[in-house]
Design a protein that fits this description.
The structure is a homodimer. By secondary structure, the first copy, chain A, is mainly α. Chain A has a single domain, classed as Tetracycline Repressor, domain 2 (Orthogonal Bundle). Helix content of chain A is 77%, strand content 0%. Chain A contains 9 helices and no strands. In chain A, helix 1 crosses helix 2, helix 1 crosses helix 6 and helix 5 packs antiparallel against helix 9. The interface between A and B is large, with 36 and 36 residues. Chains A, B: This is Transcriptional regulator, TetR family. Chains A, B: InterPro entries: DNA-bd_HTH_TetR-type_CS, Homeodomain-like_sf, HTH_TetR, Tet_transcr_reg_TetR-rel_C_sf. Chains A, B: It comes from Saccharopolyspora erythraea (strain ATCC 11635 / DSM 40517 / JCM 4748 / NBRC 13426 / NCIMB 8594 / NRRL 2338).
Chain lengths: 208, 208
């Protein structure tokens, strides 16, 4: 019985450890997200990351090689969650969630990626290396948007006189404008009807 | 006769001087535009501004109190010229001109404001004082866009089921997305059809 118990223990150990590692990784990502959003990339010091995650720098950098890797993992995590919302509800709903996001650094479920997204936009403008590292990671949002639109077209909900690639690029351009608009601190109270117009302009022809 | 001649001279002198001042001011604005676009606000040193304008720092700062004032005058000048294009051809044409703009720091007539616009966007994100100084200057583009749309509506070319304010905010949001897109160095070759879609979505209903 003891050898069987040991074998069982051996089989379980890696799984328990993996669960533990995943949970710790999640704790770091969730804690550092608000830290990056509040202080920006440069302002998110190791000290602040320790406070935000409740973990020591040793624990944090056991899971992520350096701050850059942590930020990229966070951006990738957010892009994946955005892609999930896109797949379920479409990119326009992602934008509506951004509008509903409080501007005070706190976050609401489903829309707490604005801070990360702003940092990604800023670093894409200023950092060529980052641009290359990000390029492959940003494709999943485009792919999710395109898949969603194709599905909507097959269901007869989408206009069929414009290529899905063009509609995807259109929605991504509006998202970029919205992120920039919010980043500049411009009022967003009146943008709900604008998003209605955006949504309607990719739908099946009016009057047909 | 001499007193009459003196009177005439007195009347002409201010006008001649004003022409000269205007020309010199124009020379400084045109020279510094490419300098700001190429090096960014911080990188546009006084030395570089001297080289770009062909004038001494004494001459430059005789016309503009400091670099901030020069940049704001430039941004205002560009916004005025954008507003002129908007009044004549609409905001979508302004965006098409941005797409035709070479990315190498040179400029083409009618679309050489991208560099300034990028700097404005960046400083709006990072500089609260600048945000306040810019607010009043940015209104002329909104006003020109709104006037143009109202004119199009009166001419029966515009959709009439969406408020002109919403259409204005929509076009400005897309412009902001385009500026951000170009600033991030993303490919713009495929955005022509996207702007066709934007233009069509503010026009009179299809099928009616």
């Amino acid at each position: 019985m003891q050898s069987a118990g040991t074998a069982c223990h051996d089989q379980l150990m890696p799984r328990v450890s993996q669960d533990h590692l995943d949970a710790r990784r999640r704790q770091i990502l969730d804690g550092s997200r608000s830290c990056f959003a509040r202080h920006g990339y440069e302002g998110a010091t190791v000290r602040r990351l320790e406070e935000a995650t409740g973990l020591s720098r040793g624990a944090i950098f056991h899971h992520f090689k350096d701050k850059e890797s942590l930020f990229l993992a966070l951006a990738e995590d957010d892009a994946g969650r955005m892609a999930d919302v896109v797949a379920e509800q479409g990119l326009v709903q992602v934008m509506r969630n951004l509008l509903d996001e409080p501007r005070d650094g706190t976050s609401t479920p489903g829309a707490d990626w604005l801070g990360t997204r702003l940092e990604v936009s800023r670093r894409l403008r200023t950092d060529t290396d980052f641009r290359q590292r990000w390029a492959q990671r940003s494709e999943q949002l485009t792919a999710a948007t395109k898949a969603r639109l194709q599905w909507q077209r097959d269901a007869g909900n989408l206009r069929d006189d414009v290529d899905v690639d063009v509609l995807t690029a259109y929605l991504e351009l509006v998202l970029e404008g919205l992120v920039s608009h919010l980043a500049m601190g411009l009022p967003a109270d009146d943008l709900g009807p604008v998003l209605d117009l955006v949504e309607e302009s990719v739908r099946r022809h009016r009057g047909l």
